[in-house]
Design goal:
Residues 131-163 are annotated as: Disordered. It comes from Erinaceus europaeus. This protein is α+β, with helices and mostly antiparallel strands and 190 residues long. It is built from seven helices and four strands; from the N terminus they run H-E-E-E-E-H-H-H-H-H-H. The protein has a four-stranded antiparallel sheet with strand order 1-2-3-4, covered by helices on one side. Strand 2 (31-36) and strand 3 form a beta hairpin.
Length: 190
């Protein structure tokens, strides 16, 4: 069989196996993501597998660069990728995407045994504070745009035609009220 036929058969198999599985995502017909672990699990991670043109005779591209994996240290990511590459070498020449996802699921605890969540916001702020010279806070304050509450936004949307334009005659009531006031004032004067 040719590589394309193998890929088509594996694609059909993956779609039928993972149908309804929230952890599986087909990014394209040759690229897939699988979340190992449950949402909210600090040891959960995401694997992305992309097929090359000659897959399965050549190894797929395995990546852990998804934003979901930001709390995992690069050393742990490299360790997981190395273990997955070993599994790729064993399965080279056969359809292996399902096998790799299942291998990762079965060995999740082993893969993540050295995992200590990295708080990316702290590391970024530390980098910023190290790179920028310490200066006195500037006296200029940026003007913040006024924030509207949900009720204010809803009221504004109800007044407009959802294009930001007021409907024709929106202020006629005010004109009529002013005219009535003038009529009352002039009638009392006469």
């Amino acid at each position: 069989m040719s590589a394309n036929e193998d890929q088509e058969m594996e694609l059909e198999a993956l779609r039928s196996i993972y149908e309804g599985d929230e952890s599986f995502r087909e990014l394209s017909p040759v690229s897939f993501q699988y979340r190992i672990g449950e949402n909210g699990d600090p040891k959960a991670f995401l694997i992305e597998i992309s097929w090359t043109e000659t897959y399965p005779q050549t190894p797929p591209i395995i990546s852990m660069n998804a934003f979901f994996n930001n709390t995992i240290s690069s050393a742990v990511k490299q360790s997981i990728l190395a273990k997955l590459q070993e599994a790729v070498e064993v399965n080279l020449g056969t359809a292996m995407t399902y096998t790799l996802f299942e291998y990762a699921k079965d060995n999740k605890d082993l893969f993540m045994e050295n995992h200590h969540p990295v708080n990316s916001t702290i590391s970024i702020s530390n980098i910023i504070s190290v790179d920028t010279p310490s200066t006195a806070p500037s006296s200029k304050k940026k003007d913040k745009k006024e924030q509207l509450s949900k009720a204010q936004k809803r009221k504004l949307a109800d007044k407009t035609d959802h294009k930001g334009e007021l409907p024709r005659g929106w202020n006629w009531v005010d004109v009529v009220k002013v005219c009535n006031i003038y009529i009352l004032v002039f009638s009392k004067l006469l």
